Target: Methylase
Amino acid sequence: MTQNLPFSQACENNKRPILEKLAAIFHAPGLVLEIGTGTGQHAVHFAGHLSHLTWQPSDHPRNYQLCLPRIRQAGLANLNSPKSLDVCQSEWGLPDSVNGVFSANTAHIMSWPEVERMFAGVARILAPGSAFCLYGPFSYEGQHTSASNLNFDRHLRSQNPSMGIRDMSDLIALADRCRLSLDEDLDMPANNRMTVWRRQA
Ligand SMILES: C[S@@+](CC[C@H](N)C(=O)[O-])C[C@H]1O[C@@H](n2cnc3c(N)ncnc32)[C@H](O)[C@@H]1O
Model:
């Protein structure tokens, strides 16, 4: 019975194309942290299909229990209980290193200082060479990739000026300060991107 669980139509639409990319990127067994898990639709779908991974969902303390009913219902051995994690916490309370990090549609919701803390925290816990997959809409040199992304960005900023679609040049500069490098920038449906950042040795 999934009817009463928190649900996002966007997650339903994008979970298959995202899985296709993650299967290639997270091909080796290991622990993957998800930041900003939301409803848990991604966590259940990816853990269900990538049984060689241990999937660790997490979300902001005000939100991390949202995914709990779905995760309990899925009953997957490789899907951990969600962790309360605000990327601004100085300690993330995780093992010293994880083998991958995934986050979808978070960079435009977080304020820029939060995005900075997310990259710094990811760089701290990611094993050298491992991937941070950040999915969502991004702009390039100040240009949006579609009219719908431009409208979405305007809508976000009107709701809260600290939100907004992030520009890839800002993310690359930030990543560089954190010793992360952009490895891939993959085209995804609905004007989204899968960006893959790797921890420098
Ligand atoms: C638009 S939702 C995306 C949820 C899900 N990943 C998806 O793709 O549907 C943004 C998520 O970012 C989380 N978030 C916002 N600020 C955060 C922070 N400082 N630390 C961790 N998560 C945060 C929110 O709680 C929310 O779950």
Remarks:
- The first helix runs from residue 9 to 25.
- The chain has six helices and ten strands.
- The mean pLDDT is 96.
